Every structure is written in C-alpha cells, then in structure tokens.
## 1
Amino acid sequence: MTAAVAIAACVIAMAPADTLIHRPSGPDAGPPPGEPTEIRFPVISDERAGNYPCSVAIGFLDADTIPDLAVANYGSNSVSVLLGNGDGTFQARREFPAAFLPYTVAIGDLNRDGRADLAVASEGSGQVTELLGDGKGGFGERRDLDVGGGAYSVAIGDLDKDGNADLVASNLNQNRVTVLLGRGDGTFRPGGSYATAHGPRSATIADLDLDGSPDLAVACFNSNAVSVLLGNGDGTFRRRRDHAAGQSPYSVQCGWIDGDPWPDLAVSCLASNSVSIFLGTGNGAFRRRREVMTAAQPYGLAVVDLNGDGRADLATADLATSTITVAAGKGDGGFLRGIQLATGRYPQCIAVGDLNQDGAPDLVTANTASNTVRIFLNRGKGARP
Ligand SMILES: [Ca+2]
Ligand SMILES: [Ca+2]
Ligand SMILES: [Ca+2]
Ligand SMILES: [Ca+2]
C-alpha cells in the first residue's frame, strides 16, 4: 500500500484527504442544520492490478462476508481478483484469462450455485466471457459468449424474472444492446437485441417505472442521449425513449436523488465535464435534466449516500484530471459543488462497497495508466472513530 499524494499531472488543486468538509451556505443550503454533510476519505491506498485496468467491480468472491474486487485488464486480456482482508487491504491479486480487450467486469451468480461468478465484456472479441466462481476466490475455465461487435459493457440482472441471472451487453458500433437469458446452469439463450441511440457505451438494469419488471438505461456516447427501454418482464423490451444528456455520455446509474419514490438517473458526460441528472416523474418518464459539474472527462460514475444523511451523493472518476469528484446531494435533485481527490493516472471506472466493514460505503477507482486500483475508505455515518 502507498499513501495517496497529489500527482504532478493533476491540474486542479487537491484538498487533503482528511479535511474534506462541505459547508453549505445561503438560502438553498441543502440539508437542515444538524444533518451530517461531510464526505471524508481519511485512508487512501493503492493496489496493483494488471495492465490498463478499465473496470472494477465489488462483490463477495470467496466464502467470507468481506467484499472483494474484480478488475478487467484491457491491456493484459485478464481479470485480476483481489480478496479483501476486511480492513480495506487486499491479498495479492490472482489473474484469470479473459477474451481480447476486456473492458467491463460484472459480478453475479450466473449458474445459481450460490457462488459469485464474473461476466466480462470484451470489446476486441465481441464476447462476454463467463468465469464461474469456486466460492474460494478461484474461477474455472472461461466460456466466451458471442454478443456482437463493440461489446464495451455488460450488466447482470434477472430480466425475465425466472430467478436466473441474465446479461445485457452494449454494442457500441451497432447501436444496440444484446440480451442473453440465463438457463440457471451457466448457459444462456439469445434474448434478442434492441436498438438504442447512437453509440451505446454502457447500460444499467433497474426498475425505472416501478412495475416490478427490470428496465434498461443506456448511455449513448455518440448521440448525447440516454436511451430508456422499459421491460415487459419476460426478457423483452419496449421501443426505446431517448433523453438528451450532456456531451458524450459514458456511464449511467440509477438512484433515488430527490425525495419522491420514483427512481432517477445520473449520466456521466465526459465531453461536457458534468453529470446529467434526470429526475423520474413516474411510469418511466423523466423531467428535463440538470447538470452537475465535475473535473475533466468523468468516465466512471457512482450514485450512493456517502455521508449517511439519507440523500444520494455522486462520485465520478475523472480521466483527464486523474481525480474523483465527489458531490453531496441535497435530497431535492440538487448537489453541492464537487470536491476533487487524486487517483492513480487516468481513472476510468469507480465502484462502491463497504470494504472495511464499518457501515460506510467506500470507493475504488481503476487507474488505467498506473495499473492500479485506488481505494478510498470513507468516514461516513456508522464508521468507527
Ligand atoms: Ca455461481
Ligand atoms: Ca432470468
Ligand atoms: Ca419496469
Ligand atoms: Ca467502509
């Protein structure tokens, strides 16, 4: 582990890690007095990954209840697995082979044996690689599933509500997403493909209209739009609805950003250095967007309550400035001005999990040019002193 220091390449000022305090002021000051408003990361450390790590996911990869990491290494055609020690540190990484140019890794139980498996979208081969877990942090022989060209991302969810995990991959060059429906034994059958706006970069699965069936939101890089496809509950999807976002949308996440029960969407837009916020208004519809400014080129995005005030906050991985931006949510759809912290060089992904098991969600970035992941341990509500 190495202590975090400001990196020479960063072009913006960094606050020391332990002195990040949001101080709302003015009439539109956010949470009422007495509510916690701080977001602090007192412990920051790095772990080695493979070559050009693009994506990191957090899950339980061995038999304990301590979160572990899976990292897709674009430059070494592999996945790194780092088993957690429970204090925010990790055991030495293990490497498992993926297909050509793996870009995104997701964690889920693909064969219903109670052990976490990996799905890895490989852009170079147009495949999603399935790696079945042995429940001890090891993974068996890989199985490559064809999903079509430009397979930059994969997400796992039960799209047809049969209890078996299904997959949705984005096909950047073909302006569609491809669905694979799980049989529950680790095999999949084709579930069709669906048109999106131009340049689908990543997709998220969430029930956006609260009808009990999973829906899709897809960040479409080349069309400055997010496509919403409402699910029918049988693994099929209705025709898309597009919503104008900022420039070059990259990641999309669902969360509850304002006070109503309808799910909202956040989309990182790397050419406008912002996160577009879409507040849900019911039945899968969204209000006109708002923009939250970040540092330069936000790729990765997380929507999570970091300070324990019950309101969703934002965290982005800003590639060009090698930072994360953290912005505290006001609970009404607005956010306080973001604060930046240094990452390794050129972070492309950010993931959330409680890595040291203190009740506060922590952050991890995959730093493509440093071949590391950086771990930000949060000191939020529920954290031990
Ligand atoms: Ca499994
Ligand atoms: Ca299913
Ligand atoms: Ca739905
Ligand atoms: Ca924690």
Note: Residues 20 and 78 are 36 Å apart (CA to CA).
## 2
Amino acid sequence: MSRLMLGRTLERICKAVLLLCLVHFLIMMILYFDVYSQRFDIFSRFNNGRGANNSRGAHHYYYNFSSGRPNTTFASYLATADHLLPSTKPEANHTPPTPKPLPPCPEVPLGLVGRLLIEFSSQITLERVQRENPNVTEGGKYTPPDCRPKQKVAIIIPFRHRDNHLKYWLHYLHPVLRRQKIDYGIYIINQLGEDTFNRAKLLNVGYTEAIKDAEYNCFIFSDVDLIPMDDRNLYHCYDQPRHFAIAMDKFGFRLPYAGYFGGVSGLSKKQFLKINGFPNEYWGWGGEDDDIYNRITLNGMKVSRPDVRIGRYRMIKHERDKHNEPNPQRFSKIQNTKNTMRKDGISSLMYRVVSIKKYPLYTNISVEIGKPPPRPLKG
Ligand SMILES: *[C@@H]1O[C@H](CO)[C@@H](O)[C@H](O)[C@H]1NC(C)=O
Ligand SMILES: *[C@@H]1O[C@H](CO)[C@@H](O)[C@H](O)[C@H]1NC(C)=O
Ligand SMILES: *[C@@H]1O[C@H](CO)[C@@H](O)[C@H](O)[C@H]1NC(C)=O
Ligand SMILES: *[C@@H]1O[C@H](CO)[C@@H](O)[C@H](O)[C@H]1NC(C)=O
Ligand SMILES: *[C@@H]1O[C@H](CO)[C@@H](O)[C@H](O)[C@H]1NC(C)=O
C-alpha cells in the first residue's frame, strides 16, 4: 500500500518536473528569438503593469543585428542585458538613444549656388517667407540638421520703420544662411521713439541681448537693406574682423575707400570684446563704421575681406530716413577713437529693453537708447 503511494507521488513529482522543464524551454525559446528582433524588448515585457513607460516607441536599448546573422550567444546576450537592467539604471528608461555624433560642417559647404539674382519688385509676405523656410524655428533660429557647425552666429540688424525691407532681407537671407550651414539666430534691434538714430549703439545692444539668449561666439552686424548677391560670401567669423559688404551696387561694386567698414561686418566674441564693442556716441548717419575700423586697427587687428567678385551687394533703394541726418560731428569724432574707445563702448552701454518678441522668422527686441546730448554752443 505504502509502496503504491510512494510510486504515485514519484510519478507526480516527475510530471511536475517535466512540466517545469517544458515551461522553462518555452521561455528560453521566446528569449532566444527575441535576440533576433531589432528591438530589445524583454524588460518592457517584464515591466508590464509596474507603471513603467513601455510603449514600443519608448525603448532605448537598440541593437543592430541586421548586418547578417548575429554572432552573439544567448549567454553573452544576457550578460550584456544585465548591465542594462532598469533597476541598475533607472534613468535610462527615459533618455533618448544617444544620436550619432554629426560630422563637422565642411569648410566650404556643399550645395552653394554662387551668384544670386536679387530684385525688389515682387511683393513678399512674411507668410510666404515662412512657408519657404519651414525649418527656421521661433525667433528666427536655425541649426543645420546634417553637420556640426563650429560657430554659433547671432545676426544683428539695427532697425526702425523698415518693415518692407525686412521682408526682402528675410526672404533672401534665410535660404542663403541655410545653404551656408550656419547655426544662427536673427535679432532685429528696434529703436523706439523718434529721437536721432544710433546704429552703433543698437549693435552693442544686439550683442548684449543675443548673448543672454544663447551661447553665441560670432556676431554679424547687417543693415536691413543690404542683400548679398553671392552665397559664397560666408556669414561666419574669421581670424580677423570681417567686412562682408565690400562691393555695393550704389558704389559701383567697388570699395568706396580703403578703410570702409560699413554695411555688413562680423566679429567673433573675442574680437568684439578686444575693441570694447562699438561706440555709443555717434548719433545720426555716418562715422560710427570708421570709428569701428579705427578700433580694429588700433588694437593690432586688420580687416579681412572676401574676393571683390564675391562680396557684392544690392541695396534696397529708399529715401533717407527721417531722424537719421548726417552727423556733423563725425569727422572730428573719428580723429579721437584712440582716446575714446576705452571709456565709450560695450563697457559703458546703457539702454532699456521695452519688449522682446519671438516671431517665426526673427526676434524683435525693442529698446529705448536715449537721445544725443545737447549740442555744445558754438564758440
Ligand atoms: C510614454 O512614452 C510615450 C512616447 O515617448 C509618451 O507619449 C507617453 O506620454 C509616455 N507615457 C507615460 C505614462 O510616461
Ligand atoms: C545596421 O548595420 C548595417 C551594417 O553594418 C547598416 O548597413 C545599417 O544601416 C544598420 N542599421 C541601422 C538602423 O543602423
Ligand atoms: C561578433 O563579431 C564582431 C565582428 O564582426 C566581433 O568584434 C565580436 O567580438 C564578435 N562577438 C562575439 C561574441 O563573438
Ligand atoms: C527640413 O528638415 C527636414 C528634416 O531634417 C528635412 O527632411 C527637410 O528637407 C528640411 N526642409 C527644408 C526646406 O530644408
Ligand atoms: C517690434 O516690436 C515693436 C514693439 O512692440 C513694434 O512696434 C514693431 O512694429 C515691431 N517691429 C517688427 C519689425 O516686428
């Protein structure tokens, strides 16, 4: 009787063991085939119902086994998997897969077209420019998707009442900058009120506000009415301060004089700080660019320029702006750069930001920069 009982018990145990083996085998098979699937899915399966985010798209352990049959054994697979257990690296559950590091952008970008046809007769709307530049992000920013640029460029435009010019500028420049693989942001520095315009002070404001917004290391200062006619004129910074607009149509596509530094120029952060930024005391039209040129040469740098066939620009024709009359003091002031540049510059800049608005194609920074000091009495 007891022998029979023992026999039956043994039989049951054997059956149980067999069943266990079968279940074990099945699990092994499932795990084994999992190795061949593209996504490493085990942990999510085990995490079910624990509140972990296990939607398929959220998986971050990625193995590329598509290059032929895997040489990985099941044992090595588990060994690798051990390091990735969520318990040991809980934060890994939410970090995206580390993207492949992009290659550095080439010195001379591919895809430039050279000479451009620039005209100002067709009507441009901001909606159209926006449609044509879908990858420009809020505030007028862009980063090349396929390479890593060395520089981060803030493009600064002194501005007042030139909305129509701005449309042309954005229409032409966004595509050029994109082809040039520039990592950039566009800043319009809008002088509020109707006091005398002060271009160089607005540029100082642009520098100061741009570095608050992002880690720029290159600054390009452009008038709103100047459009480059050749996309090989690369909008980034160089070993020396750069003058871009060397051949404008209004000057017969020639440099008007050797020390000309007007229109479009670019300085690295280091170069800009070395000259204490730009002067704040040039009210009205003219002179400030010559003062900047003097600052550059007095600080032992020299201006770099593109080839005259490439540095060509079209200027949008316009009436002279109101409240930007030629500055009568400009000739005497530029004689004094050496004495004034240490006290007058980015170190002495004072202004008040009234609003910062980020539009799809540019950032609009409106500022109060004061007005010129009263004219000294004659005599
Ligand atoms: C899970 O991840 C998906 C995709 O990343 C996300 O849309 C969803 O909100 C997440 N759910 C939870 C509960 O975290
Ligand atoms: C997987 O590897 C193969 C061969 O190395 C490669 O061609 C393929 O692009 C890779 N797949 C992915 C998605 O990275
Ligand atoms: C798998 O193959 C690669 C080269 O194809 C080799 O470097 C690696 O050591 C192999 N791994 C195993 C576990 O055999
Ligand atoms: C915008 O970016 C996407 C993704 O990087 C790319 O496929 C597309 O061609 C870009 N569009 C333009 C107009 O550059
Ligand atoms: C910039 O903002 C100011 C202040 O709101 C506004 O008056 C001006 O029209 C704006 N200019 C541009 C070009 O967006």
Note: The pocket of 2-acetamido-2-deoxy-beta-D-glucopyranose (ligand 2) is lined by residues 64, 66-67 (CB under 6 Å).
